[in-house]
Write a structure and sequence with these properties.
alpha/beta; 2-enoyl-CoA Hydratase, Chain A, domain 1; 8-stranded mixed beta sheet
Length: 441
Amino acid sequence: MAFSKTLAEMEQSVPESDARKRLEAFFDGGEFTELDKFLSAEGEVSSVVTGFGDVDGTSVYVFAQDSSVKGGAVNKSAARKIAKIYELAAKSGAPVVGFYDSKGGDINEGMAVLSAYGDIMKASAEISGVVPQIAVITGVCAGCAAMLAEMADVTIMSEDAELFLTSPFNTPDGKIEGAGKAASAAKSGVADIVAKNADEAVAAAKKLISVLPENNMALAGSTGFEENDAPVNASLKGEKLVEALADKGSVIELGAGFGSAAYTALASVRFGSVAFVATDKAEKLTADDAAKIARFVQLADVFSIPVVTVISTDGFEGSSAAELSGSVRECAKLAQVYATATTAKVNLITGNAFGAAYAAFDAADISYAWENAKIAPMSPEAGKVFMGEELVVNPFAAASEGMVDGVIAAEDTREAIASALWICQNKRVASPARKRPNIAF
């Protein structure tokens, strides 16, 4: 790229690409302000597009790797552009969305690229919990880029995308089918959302922006949804119950392929954002479920998004294999995250809540139980074996002990949850002086 060219000539030398098309699809009206458009290495076109614009009225900073330029290889100038986006986001309190489509670092720059990636990861870590970060992977995302993408609050992949730390075909066991693919990333909890294609991945990121706050000092909510009037009854569970409680069309499930006994989703309730956790899938909670819930609640907590937990579970998985795999660590993490989360927390017990499973979630500001809920220190079957008697498990007994704040009919749930969220909206907690709790990892 010759620097003697006019502005018009310089503009023409910047090619149209999938990266720019994705940004046009992402931003309101297809318009965004590009930054450092002519910042390049040795006069060449940059392999990353950076800029800012509005999404659903929210200011957002972005970077998009351009695979049409050297396969999207990251060099020093590209890394510099990405790092600047994080710095600007930190100053202005705006979310960062990264679009990943690159074969990796530019090997011609050697150690310099490795150092530059270190600077980017440091910049991402510094704004973690300050502004939302979303990674959208529509091509290859490998090595250091894979770590950077996974450091985001939410990772979205298209079905044909690839995400890996080390190329599966370069490892001793590289013939394992599915390694590095989106389906495997979802199953292992690496990808939070898997979209059919790049366009749907972009749409998922846009919807996330509508329910996440701009930063950790802002309230999360959107007027872009319609209030729900669907009936709520005792037959509804998991996703169906959350959809009935949330504003129409607002539910965004995260981690669908990871931890099958738990359901986690961001949504809107009367135009305020809410993080829903449901454990009513008639399965015992595994280590994966516990890890999934803990990560999700931690995300909600750092951005002060209220957490509504629907509890109906026979407890945690009990097996020698689970114990040998260290499942107690993940269950302890879940309990610790709930206990230390200072955001508003509302519990709704719709079925069984026995023993450790009840205790792990017992950190709510307000708790309700349906009339048919069963709450006890252990299951009725275990009570007969260990205590030789029939345990009292009805919710009114629990209410008499102060374990729940109210017993409600299923049809009154929406109003009860909305009222609890409203009264807790200005919750303030003075935490002990410390750097952070030592989460069980």
